[in-house]
Specification:
The complex is a heterodimer of chains A (45) and B (306). By secondary structure, chain A is an all-alpha fold. Helices cover 82% and strands 0% of the residues of chain A. The longest helix of chain A is centred in the middle third of the chain and has 37 residues. Chain A is rod-shaped and about 60 Å long. The relative contact order of chain A is 0.08. Chain B has 306 residues and is an all-alpha fold. The chains are: A mainly alpha (45), B mainly alpha (306). At the A-B interface, helix 1 of A face helix 4 of B.
Chain lengths: 45, 306
């Protein structure tokens, strides 16, 4: 499938946005899992 | 050709976000959080945040699955035609996988971080909404909203169980209150957007049983809601702060549903003001009721026994 330059630009824009959001979510979950682990093994209960 | 090209492009992340119905999610997060705060016992703030996050993720996943299944119906209704799937901004497979992935991740995280009883109830709530309500009951029976109301009633129950680890009468009463609240809340809306549901063949109560019957049923549920909403006080599960607030809020609910029950549509140009008023109040009612529950709990914890 060939894309016009406008479609190509739109494709790249959306892919970039999605990659950025996925990266942010990944970092957020890494941080969350770190703190969950600390709380759970710390015997907070 | 524009639509085929649009679906070949990857969907914008904002469309995935829209798929989770963020506005519904805010009510889910609020009632889940309130159930958690009102529960006896203590939960570490990190785990409390995680539990609410899981409830929100599961609600978002269930909403995505709902829109994946109903894309063709949504396209036929004015209120929903602008959603990502009817607009062709996203392909259905992506929506389905997003919904399954989000729900499964939420259940796993809840099980690992909080406990498996809360995780199982969370899984049941997703299946209840996405399968029992969306796929099975909604297109088949005008009682769809009555039974489907259970889906929205899960969050405070899950929030409560995340803290206590067991199911007791109090969280079941919170479940029952939202269950009883849903039919008058939704039918008030259905009365003034009736034409849309009729168009796509969804058997909503006003379409099937008629407006007069729906108005009577709104009143019946509002009457039942009054003692039920105060029942946590009657059984000694809360203090008088919640009990009196619940009675007052439900009395206003009943007072607003009376004109809805006793009137008839005056004609096609009827502005349906009592119905719109009841619907707007019903949203406020749920927020206020759960806020009162939390206030009651916090006051009693701090020693202000009332």
């Amino acid at each position: 499938m060939t894309m016009t330059p406008e479609e190509k630009a739109e494709f790249n824009r959306r892919r970039k946005g999605r990659n950025l959001v996925v990266a942010l979510l990944l970092v957020a979950f890494v941080v969350l899992f770190f703190f969950i682990t600390i709380v759970r093994i710390g015997g907070a209960q | 050709m524009t639509t085929t090209i649009a679906t070949q492009l990857p969907a914008d992340w904002r469309d995935f976000f829209a798929l989770t119905k963020p506005r519904v999610m805010s009510l889910v997060v609020f009632t889940g959080l309130c159930g958690m705060i009102a529960a006896p016992g203590h939960i570490h703030p990190v785990l409390g945040f995680t539990a609410v996050l899981c409830i929100a993720m599961a609600a978002g996943g269930a909403a995505a699955l709902n829109q994946w299944w109903e894309a063709d119906l949504d396209a036929g209704m004015k209120r929903t035609a602008m959603r990502p799937l009817p607009q062709g901004r996203m392909d259905p497979i992506s929506a389905r996988d997003f919904g399954v992935g989000l729900s499964a991740a939420a259940v796993l995280l809840m099980g690992l971080a909080i406990g498996w009883l809360a995780a199982v109830i969370l899984a049941v709530s997703v299946v209840y909404y996405a399968v029992i309500y969306t796929i099975w009951l909604k297109p088949r029976t005008p009682q769809n909203i009555v039974i489907g109301g259970g889906a929205g009633a899960f969050p405070p129950l899950i929030g409560w169980v995340a803290v206590t680890g067991e199911i007791t009468l109090m969280p079941i009463l919170l479940f029952a209150i939202i269950f009883m609240w849903t039919p008058p809340h939704f039918w008030a809306l259905a009365l003034f957007v009736k034409s849309d549901y009729a168009k796509v063949g969804i058997p909503m109560m006003p379409v099937v049983a008629g407006e007069a019957s729906t108005r009577k049923q709104i009143l019946a549920y509002s009457v039942l809601l009054l003692p039920l909403s105060a029942s946590p006080w009657f059984i000694g599960g809360t203090g008088a702060v919640y009990g009196i607030a619940a009675l007052a809020l439900s009395a206003v609910f009943l007072a607003l549903s009376l004109p809805v029950a006793l009137r008839r549509r005056s004609g096609e140009d009827d502005r349906m003001l009592p119905e719109k008023r009841l619907f707007a109040y019903s949203v406020f009612y749920l927020f206020a009721l759960f806020a009162a529950l939390v206030a009651d709990r916090l006051l009693s914890v701090q020693g202000f026994i009332i």
